[in-house]
Amino acid sequence: MKLSAWKYVKNNMRVLLVQISALSLSLMTMYVIYTLLQTTSESFRPIMLELPKKISYASITGSSYGLDVKGYETYEELEAAYNEKQEQLIERLKSRPGISDVFYAQILYSMYQSVVGQQTAETPLMEPERIPAFLDHMEARLTEGRMPAGDGEMLVDETIMKNMGYSIGGYFMKDWYGETFKIVGTIRSDCMISVGTPMGHTNSGSYLVVLGDESVMDLTSVLIEEGIKIKSSDNIIDGVHYRDAYRKDVEDAIGSAVNVIMIVVMVFLAILILVTYVSYMRNRVSEYCLYSSIGYGRGDIYGMMIREMFIIFGISAVTGMILSLAGGYAIERLVIEPKGLIGHVLYAGHMFKILSTFIFMIGILQIPALACISRIRTIDAVEK
């Protein structure tokens, strides 16, 4: 007759509750932290990976156009030569496949705040008559308010509006630009794009704005093909720029943070479980000796101990998963949605990784279990 593992667990659930609670809460903690961190990665993806598929920016110095400052007597002559070179480049770029429009424009920076960190994005300023075509290219549509008609009027993406606490009639990036750019409408776009009209010289710089498709995401290579000698003083903001920043500043940073948290939690959990199980097994040495005295072998007793571990860890895993999903749902409703962020309740891959740590813990516990088995003797031997 096989020794029952469930009977002991059932009859001592109150004693084992602390252990089960610790395991369940540890699983939930690791999962909730991952969910919060992953929200940053998910939320920044539209701005850093999707937006550059449709729009790029370039600020090119005169030397990259081949202009020598010493060759011009006045600044006005140099400026005229620069503008001519730039207009020639604009016309050449417009004729390239994959590019729908190119123009020179002022830009603002918009802010998007996640649970961890924040991301800025370029916001072009253009004449009101150009905005409808721009929205068509960006696959954006007006959802509330009106189109900009005068100077310093803004259309802001719905997600950015929610994230930054804006409202129609309020001011865009007030802390940076003051009460200059008034929000007159909201738009909906998968890229979280915003757009507006200029207001004098209040801006964050002027750039060539290139509207295109994925074939021109590497704007640096396109400009080199057009004869521009790109230098470190030039500022090219394209798909390659954002892709590299996303991998380095978001994916790698978050991945490293998650790994550190997982390791720290696993170490503390392993220590806690080892201490608990050593005490737990010592208190049951007499019980194990009794089993040995009535004819059960060490293999039978060891098998019962392993089955008990799987029952305890199994209950903890199920409870932890339920708590994790409940915690993920609460985060989505209380944090993610109200702040205009992007996230999910279920991250199956990470849940599997956390559950794998439980298998690792069971493996670690074989050390005290085998040590305990080696000390089991019959009652007669104990009395002698």
Short overview:
The protein is of the alpha+beta class. It has helices spanning 6-11, 13-50, 75-94, 131-137, 158-164, 174-177, 219-225, 239-282, 285-293, 298-336, 348-364, 366-374, 379-383, and strands at residues 55-59, 99-113, 118-124, 141-145, 153-157, 182-188, 195-196, 206-212, 235-237.
Fold and architecture overview:
- By secondary structure, this protein is of the alpha+beta class.
- The protein has 2 domains: 6-45 and 248-383, no CATH class; 54-237, no CATH class.
- The protein has 13 helices and 9 strands.
- It has helices at 6-11, 13-50, 75-94, 131-137, 158-164, 174-177, 219-225, 239-282, 285-293, 298-336, 348-364, 366-374, 379-383; strands at 55-59, 99-113, 118-124, 141-145, 153-157, 182-188, 195-196, 206-212, 235-237.
- A 5-stranded antiparallel β-sheet has the order 3-2-8-1-9, with helices on both faces. It has a 4-stranded mixed β-sheet with strand order 4-6-5-7.
- The radius of gyration is 32 Å and the shape is elongated.
- The two termini are 28 Å apart.
- Mean pLDDT is 88; it is low at 380-384.
Blueprint (SSEs and pairs):
Layout: H1 6-11, H2 13-50, E1 55-59, H3 75-94, E2 99-113, E3 118-124, H4 131-137, E4 141-145, E5 153-157, H5 158-164, H6 174-177, E6 182-188, E7 195-196, E8 206-212, H7 219-225, E9 235-237, H8 239-282, H9 285-293, H10 298-336, H11 348-364, H12 366-374, H13 379-383
Helix pairs in contact: 2-8, 2-10, 2-11, 8-11, 10-11, 10-12
